[in-house]
Amino acid sequence: KMGLPMGAVQNALLRDGKDPTIMDLDPEKSVEFQRNSGGKKKKKGKKKGKKTKVEKEKKLKVRRKKLFWNPIDEGKIKKHSIWYKVKGAVDMGKLKYDASEFDSLFTDTSNPADKKKKVGAGDSSSGPKQKKSTQVIDGKRGMNGGIILARLKMEYSVIANMVDNMDSGKFDATQLRALQEFLPTDEEHQGLDSYIKSASTSEEKKKEAMDDLCACEKYMVAMMVVSESASKFDCMLFQSQFECSLKEIVDEIIKLSNACKEVRTSSRLQKLMAVILTLGNHINTGGTGNLASGFSLDALLKLDEAKAFDKKTSVLQYLVKLLKQNDESLIQFKEELPTVAEAGSVMLDSLSADMKQMKEEVEKVKKTAEKEGNRLRREAKEKNISVAELIAEKADGSNNNDQTDYKDKTPMEVFSLNAEVEMNKALTKTDDVKDSYGEVLEYFGEDEKMPSNEFFGTINKFIANFYAAVEFVDKMEAQKLKEEKRAAALQAKHEKKLAAKKAREEAMAGGASEKSAMAASDALSADFTEGGDRPKPTLAAAAAAASLKRRGSKVDAKNGFIAAAVAATKKKAEEENGPPLGGIAAMAASAAARKKSVNDIGPPAGGIAAVAAAAARKNSGSVEGPPAGGIAAMAAAAA
């Protein structure tokens, strides 16, 4: 295991007084067994004879990057499923892609390196939350009840009458729940009943005893005369929440139904799944051999996790690049799935449970309402009036409930009947969406028990990962394009400098053509102009001008920079009969401009100016001067 030679180990054993033959035993069997049976580890014998060249060469093993998806059994794929429709729809050989890039990313011929095991840190778990227990004290309960009742600003007898008739009025669910919370318990009911009876010797004493009660206790006394007050509060609470609760459930059903329809009818999603299947098979097998006919939906998330051998490019990023090269419209497949994002939070099983619970509550409300309705109908019959009239009489003549269609029904009975109708409609929609979702699972070849939020949640995660990969690829491509433009600009600038340098050298040599001199002048005018329309005369410009004049070319305003340099030197020479200001360039230009005869006298002898003047005279054949070299040579060439 440590990589030591066998001989070295045996020598070490022999040195320590151990039996070296133990190294010949089979490590998979016990020493005692092998000693008794004489069994030793068999050594593989080497074949004699020379191996051929083909035998010596080891076969190159291609290691492929694996996409660990869960293939769907082809026998389970039905004719109307997505996998049956996309079978053979995409041929990797017909797609536009760089085969060498694919091989470099997803195949490897080198020996696999040992992978380091990463030790994951343990998840920290928080301790279980303690359930809060509630302890009610009579004084505190009375104080809290008084606060609630003070906000309602309503007589306790009126509240009791509303509860008795199961009329919620303007109370919302929160207020009804608070009122229900302060209904008297059996113990409180007995205590308050005893207290009132003890003070019932006279009406005056009874009134005084009632005045001594706190607000919450007065409310409890008023509610003691209402039969089955807790059940009636339940009916009122359900009624106040029914419309909103049912709407929420129906909206969730509609979202799920639309999402099921979208994933089944999206042509872009279908084509995208076909490309992913083809790409995955090509990565795993090279496009031959045991090809998968489909894959489970969780494989979509593994596309972002699986990396190429460069440990940078994910399969998902490569998929995006593949789509950009072949069918860029598939990148916008999300446009055909507008409701899928909302459906990711919908749990079909939870919706079914909620509908079942609501149905049970409707039945409970219906029974309570019928029981109260029967009592009121008996009372109304005794008074020879309708139930609606009886309710209006109890409500001091005010009746806000429409009893046009149900004159012999209480408001809660009317509500329970309408709620039952709406519930049946919602249950029908629930059954429809169950069937639709089952068809979706069958369409994608998924387990029929897969929760809806898991299915659409997986698609939503894939969508998020996919467009993150699109953003990354776009960013990389933009950066690459920017670098290419920058390199092209640097290359163009470099070539321009080389051309300008060559033109300058030709102009300074004196044998340049007029076109070369003009090119040198234009290039240098761009490099040395200090600002405005007036250029700075330089030696190169003067040399270019001299070259043009020497060939009989006209130096005028059309020559731009050259004309300005020559004009400046000529004017200064005519005014002062000497070298004009402007350094070596001006002197050289002046020498060339004043060269009319061999008797012309150039600038005063001395330094570079003397050399320039001598060069000018020498060129005309009058005086021999020093040999041209460096700046003097350029001046002589210009002359």
Mean pLDDT: 75
Strand and helix order: HHHEHHEHHHHHHHHHHHHHHHHHHHHH
Number of strands: 2
In what range is the share of β-strand residues? under 5%
Rough shape?
elongated
Distance between the termini: 88 Å
Query: SS-based structural class?
Result: mainly alpha
If helices are DSSP runs of H or I spanning 4 or more residues, what is the number of helices? 26
Q: Largest sheet, described in full?
A: 2 strands, antiparallel
- Radius of gyration from the CA trace? 51 Å
Strand order in the largest sheet? 1-2
Helix content: 55-70%
Low-confidence stretches: 39-49, 53-57, 114-137, 397-404, 526-538, 555-561, 595-607, 618-630, 635-639
Blueprint (SSEs and pairs):
Blueprint: H1 6-15, H2 31-37, H3 53-56, E1 63-64, H4 82-86, H5 99-106, E2 107-108, H6 138-152, H7 156-164, H8 173-181, H9 186-198, H10 203-211, H11 215-223, H12 229-265, H13 267-285, H14 299-305, H15 315-326, H16 340-343, H17 348-382, H18 387-394, H19 411-444, H20 452-508, H21 514-528, H22 539-550, H23 561-576, H24 583-593, H25 607-620, H26 630-638
Helix pairs in contact: 6-11, 7-11, 8-12, 12-17, 12-19, 15-20, 17-18, 17-19, 20-21, 21-22, 22-23, 22-24, 22-26, 23-24, 24-25, 24-26, 25-26
